[in-house]
TrEMBL record:
Annotated source species: Daphnia galeata
UniProt superkingdom: Eukaryota
Name of this chain's protein: Reverse transcriptase domain-containing protein
GO biological process annotation, one example: DNA biosynthetic process
InterPro entries, A to Z: DNA/RNA_pol_sf
Length: 204
């Protein structure tokens, strides 16, 4: 991740605050079992797809930044496919007043001007349009940065599991929880570099 060199080493762990928020979230979801189940299925789907991983040795000392993303389920009634999506918050501040987003570079705006897109669309008789499914989730996070994208959740919905300490997971891919000004930059810069490489390969 594009860390700010003046902030990266200042980001403290926020495990206890994240655990407190996690407990409140669980208590709320227990009153809405359908929402609870749907949210759990989404997170387990991320795990099966390799988008997230379970941290098997969370107590092992690390010299990397260790940050826990707060999250909650959001209902999207207008969505055609995914009606419920866990939303992660990288802007939540620690007791020291820092958030993960504070420690990341914003990046320049790489989105093309809409007028230019419309004009180019009319240049030729045929226009190509494409869509990358789950585009952000196709971008892999460097292994050394994943400890800064941890979050708390449970392994299953049994009562015995709910009574235990939560499991720790981490993101392996770019998540929507990062600032809206940062995620499109990561996505656009990566795919722009891929397109440049393809152009050199196709048109040497």
């Amino acid at each position: 991740m594009p860390w700010r060199t003046d902030k990266k080493d200042l980001l403290p762990t926020n495990y206890y605050r994240a655990n407190e928020r996690f407990r409140r979230l669980i208590n709320r979801l227990l009153k809405e079992p359908e929402l609870f189940r749907a949210n759990h299925e989404q997170i387990m789907g991320y795990l099966q797809s390799g988008f997230i991983s379970k941290v098997e040795a969370p107590d092992q000392p690390t010299t990397r930044s260790e940050f826990y993303l707060l999250h909650r389920p959001v209902i999207r009634s207008q969505a055609v496919t995914t009606k419920i999506r866990p939303v992660f918050d990288a802007s939540a501040r620690t007791d020291e007043g820092l958030s993960l987003n504070d420690c990341l570079e914003t990046g320049e705006n790489l989105n093309p001007e809409l007028l230019a897109v419309l004009l180019r669309f009319r240049w030729h008789r045929v226009a190509w349009v494409g869509n990358i499914e789950k585009a952000f989730l196709q971008i892999e996070i460097h292994a050394e940065d994943r400890d800064a994208l941890r979050f708390l959740w449970i392994d299953d919905l049994t009562s015995s599991t709910l009574e235990k300490e939560p499991s720790i997971f981490c993101w392996n891919r770019v998540t929507f929880g990062l600032s809206p000004s940062r995620v499109p930059y990561y996505c656009a810069s990566l795919y722009e570099s891929i397109l440049r490489a393809l152009k050199r390969w196709i048109l040497p």
